[in-house]
Amino acid sequence: xxxxxxxEQLSSDDEVLASLAMKDILARPDVGxxxxxxxxxxxxxxxxxxxxxxxxxxxxxxxNVDFKEALLDNRSSFWELAVAINCIIDxxxxxxxxxxxxxxxxxxxxxxxxxxxxxxKLMSDTGLHTENVPMHCLTDFLVNDVMxxxxxxxxxxxxxxxxLGAIYGWPLVIGFYRNxxxxxxxxxxxxxxxxxxxxxxxxxxxxPLDKHSFAIYYLGQMRNAxxxxxxxxxMTKLSYLIHTAIVxxx
Length: 250
Known about the structure:
The chain is built from eleven helices and five strands, in the order αααααααααβββββαα. It is of the alpha+beta class. Strand 1 (173-177) and strand 2 form a beta hairpin. The chain starts with a helix and ends with a helix.
């Protein structure tokens, strides 16, 4: 669509037409140039919608920065990484909204967790679960949807459990145990998200994942789901995120 046509649509009194034009502009690589050119346009409808586009674009840029900072900053957690990825893939979500959903998972008054078995029971009581299926849909990986649905892929479920562990004072490491994604505490007790079963692992039986390695695996699983779901735009976006994680790992 030519710039003159799309600017005319943005100026329209037809909200549906203008909304489609805004969506089109936000998907373009030259969105910043269009914002700069029409930010102070005299036509009220055009100026208002350009300001809306600018706000949305700035939020998206901020979220991309959050993703990179979560990977690079040793002080940031897997949860911050997961929230940034969630907001990139689902643009209707925000870090504040996701963390508000997380607060609902925390029992009130908050219990004191004194053992891995107590934490496993707490997780079981939430109803949060995963299943061994051939392929999950993309939303099953996003922590916001996992919490809202009490169900998800093992990555999303493990991320929610790890975050709850941090809140309850029972730190957990995400990694692989016998080729399955699992969580491990400081005493080498392993928690399996599939049924919240607990076992003890030898050091060599559990492979801990750093943030970069987990991000590459997590995003790769999500890209596979996007491929099956035939979501080409998200496939491209996830490929970019994987590339970014690989580059930042070096």
